[in-house]
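User: Can you recover a sequence for this backbone? Please restate the input before giving your answer.

Assistant: Of course. Working from this structure:
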């Protein structure tokens, strides 16, 4: 098949924001971290090696990165969840007065989730490829300045709470954290045996060649480690090509939720490495020509492995991946039709202002945004998530224990409050 690429689309969506979602794809995270490996190899321009922490006041890494859904094979975006070939998903709705993106009053809101209807019960298992993407940071002449290995973190990803079972209050049996969160949301309607599980499927590593001028290495004094910073525009194009290669190589399928795992790799904006960092986003790519009457969609996320002692609040290891998978479970197609996943405007305790069901963005950056889980002697730091009920402004919750967040039910004690467009007074 012939692979073509359509230019991506990005936009700002929230106050102080970076890239977000509403037909964009999103998912993001709070402060992140990095890998240790200062190269002694000379050649790259010295201006691309930064020795020191971020400027005063930064980084504020509580924003979202994303790319618009893009066709891997040409064609146009088909709006709407019906008539797609992709992962199992189901829709629901809630009723509450709010304002939509154009400021019009809306009383009913449609949403969309990964898996099958809670009322039907049973276990849905979705294959979850994990593709480690190593970095080849290039000199001006195209030779390698530094190689950063992602495969060293594969086993940690596979063994994390995102793919392995642990104990949670929402399940009578050990389960994965995203299933536990979803079971909390639908505790009032789900059958006891209802689960949505990810089957970790580690793949061989691939390499992303990053041209000189699009990367910086920042040696962080406070941890003695390195951060690999990549220009967001360059990254999106390189990443899209990596996804297409995985599709053409049969590494990922439309029935998968695929994680592309990077080694301490963070994105910066406007050509300025101080305007950092995005450490994850979720999206999909599609083909609307292969199957008549259907759009084929591959659901994916970019997630950085985060080394410890870099950012506040305990954000490290799989926080980014947990954030992105949590948002995928609650809006796998990122409001692709402009309807499913749209919510009343909301403002989170961290200041984020949005109108979509980005459950991780509500909690990221808060003092208690992570939920430590120990598996096989290693303590992971997945992120707490806002529940569906938090977006139903000003109402009590019918989630487990009347909660608005999970696994830590204390993070969000009440639902969101009514907001004007862009959360203006």
């Amino acid at each position: 098949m012939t692979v073509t690429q359509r230019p991506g689309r990005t936009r700002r969506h929230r106050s102080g924001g970076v890239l977000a979602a509403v037909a964009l794809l999103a998912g993001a995270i709070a402060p992140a971290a990095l890998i240790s490996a200062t190269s002694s190899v000379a050649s790259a321009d010295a201006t691309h090696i930064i020795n020191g922490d971020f400027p005063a006041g930064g980084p504020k890494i509580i924003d979202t990165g994303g790319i618009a859904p893009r066709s891997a094979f040409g064609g146009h975006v088909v709006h709407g969840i019906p008539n797609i070939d992709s992962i199992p998903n189901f829709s629901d709705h809630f009723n509450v007065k709010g304002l939509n993106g154009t400021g019009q009053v809306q009383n009913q809101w449609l949403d969309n989730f990964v898996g099958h209807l809670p009322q039907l019960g049973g276990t849905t298992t979705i294959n979850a490829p994990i593709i480690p993407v190593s970095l080849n940071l290039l000199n001006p002449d195209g030779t390698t300045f530094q190689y950063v290995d992602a495969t060293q973190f594969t086993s940690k990803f596979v063994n994390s709470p995102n793919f392995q079972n642990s104990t949670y209050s929402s399940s009578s049996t050990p389960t994965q954290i995203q299933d536990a969160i979803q079971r909390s949301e639908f505790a009032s309607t789900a059958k006891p045996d209802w689960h949505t599980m990810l089957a970790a499927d580690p793949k061989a590593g691939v390499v992303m060649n990053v041209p000189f001028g699009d990367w910086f290495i920042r040696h962080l004094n406070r941890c003695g480690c390195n951060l690999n910073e990549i220009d967001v525009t360059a990254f999106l194009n390189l990443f899209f090509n990596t996804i297409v290669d995985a599709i053409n190589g049969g590494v990922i399928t439309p029935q998968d939720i695929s994680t592309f795992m990077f080694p301490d790799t963070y994105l910066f904006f406007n050509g300025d490495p101080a305007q950092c960092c995005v450490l994850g986003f979720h999206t999909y790519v599609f083909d609307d020509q292969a199957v008549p009457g259907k759009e084929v969609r591959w659901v994916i996320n970019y997630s950085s492995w985060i080394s410890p002692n870099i950012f506040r609040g305990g954000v490290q290891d799989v926080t980014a991946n947990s954030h992105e998978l949590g948002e995928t479970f609650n809006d796998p197609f990122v409001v692709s039709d402009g309807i499913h996943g749209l919510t009343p405007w909301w403002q989170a305790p961290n200041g984020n202002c949005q109108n979509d069901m980005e459950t991780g963005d509500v909690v990221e950056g808060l003092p208690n945004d992570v939920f430590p889980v120990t598996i096989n002697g290693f303590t992971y730091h997945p992120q707490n998530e806002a529940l569906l009920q938090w977006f139903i402004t000003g109402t009590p919750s019918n989630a487990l224990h009347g909660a608005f967040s999970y696994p830590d039910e204390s993070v969000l004690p009440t639902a969101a409050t009514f907001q004007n467009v862009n959360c203006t007074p």
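That completes the design. Residues 232-248 form the longest helix (17 residues).
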